[in-house]
């Protein structure tokens, strides 16, 4: 008697006894009975994240929190974070000419994309970068108070 191997391709399907009989051979051969397979268990997936927020405007985030701070001369730099959209951005308080940006690292801070969303205070006393997706990466905010003395928050 020949045997056939059927490969599982990821789709469950009920196989009728008639189909098994065709595969098994002559009608005189015993046809095994088969119980219906149980429905596969499907885990409930987490809600889908929105597309990357890179270069988005953070001003509408109502759940934003400051997760890291640092000082750069007379300026204070903050790393802001929105848990709802998993995005971060930098904000700085200081005088005109003070710059802020975000660095993003995929290897724990050994290397990083730098000066993302670079923004400079041109009037008033604060500025912020655009927002950046920080899902699965580390980010920090950095500032230069205009004298080349750069300080960054810790990685988050």
Number of strands: 9
Stretches where pLDDT falls below 50 for ≥5 residues? 1-25, 27-50
Structural class: mainly beta
Shape: globular
For the largest beta-sheet, the strand count, sense and barrel status come to: 5 strands, antiparallel
Number of helices: 1
Strand content: 25-35%
Write the H/E string, N to C. HEEEEEEEEE
Distance between the termini: 65 Å
Q: Quick check: average pLDDT?
A: 76
Rg measurement, Å: 29 Å
Q: How do the strands and helices of this protein lay out in sequence?
A:
Layout: H1 17-24, E1 65-72, E2 75-82, E3 87-93, E4 99-105, E5 113-120, E6 126-128, E7 132-133, E8 138-144, E9 150-152
Antiparallel strand pairs: 1-2, 2-3, 3-6, 3-7, 4-5, 4-8, 8-9
């Amino acid at each position: 008697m020949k045997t056939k191997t059927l490969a599982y391709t990821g789709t469950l399907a009920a196989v009728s006894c008639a189909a098994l009989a065709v595969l098994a051979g002559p009608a005189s051969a015993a046809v095994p009975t088969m119980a219906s397979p149980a429905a596969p268990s499907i885990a409930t997936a987490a809600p889908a994240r929105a597309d990357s927020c890179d270069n988005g405007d953070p001003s509408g985030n109502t759940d934003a929190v400051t997760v890291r701070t640092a000082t750069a001369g007379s300026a204070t730099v903050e790393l802001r974070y929105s848990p709802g959209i998993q995005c971060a951005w930098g904000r700085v308080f200081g005088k005109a000419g003070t710059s802020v940006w975000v660095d993003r690292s995929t290897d724990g801070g050994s290397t990083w994309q730098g000066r993302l969303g670079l923004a400079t205070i041109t009037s008033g006393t604060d500025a912020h970068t655009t927002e950046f997706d920080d899902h699965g990466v580390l980010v920090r905010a950095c500032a230069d108070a205009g004298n080349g003395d750069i300080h960054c928050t810790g990685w988050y």
